[in-house]
Predict the 3D structure of the following.
Amino acid sequence: QVQLQESGPGLVKPSQTLSLSCTVTGGSITTKYYAWSWIRQPPGKGLEWMGVIAYDGSTYYSPSLKSRTSISRDTSKNQFSLQLSSVIPEDTAVYYCARDLAGKGVVTLFDYWGQGTQVTVSS
């Protein structure tokens, strides 16, 4: 059974960088041909896909967030991470990590999700 767990600070100040990690157990992030996505849900809004890192380390980002988003991985810890720079209050959301079967950010093709972590952007 694959399990994902997000971790990171729950409060970030405006203009700073939001950093979250997702630890995967029950499966390797380097297993062909899986990919691993970050998704967020602002209060009262729908899910927004942010970006993905594939089994081979290649990355792809949502065009709307590409300039501020970076996804990386630590294969020794079986973790992948999200960095979102220059955050604003509108970046307040529940952030999720998920396994992406197609590597294209299609939410219906995510089969395992983390429980989500609330991140608030406020001074």
In short: The two ends are 39 Å apart (CA to CA). The mean pLDDT is 96. DSSP finds no helices and eleven strands in the chain. The first strand starts at residue 3 and ends at 7.
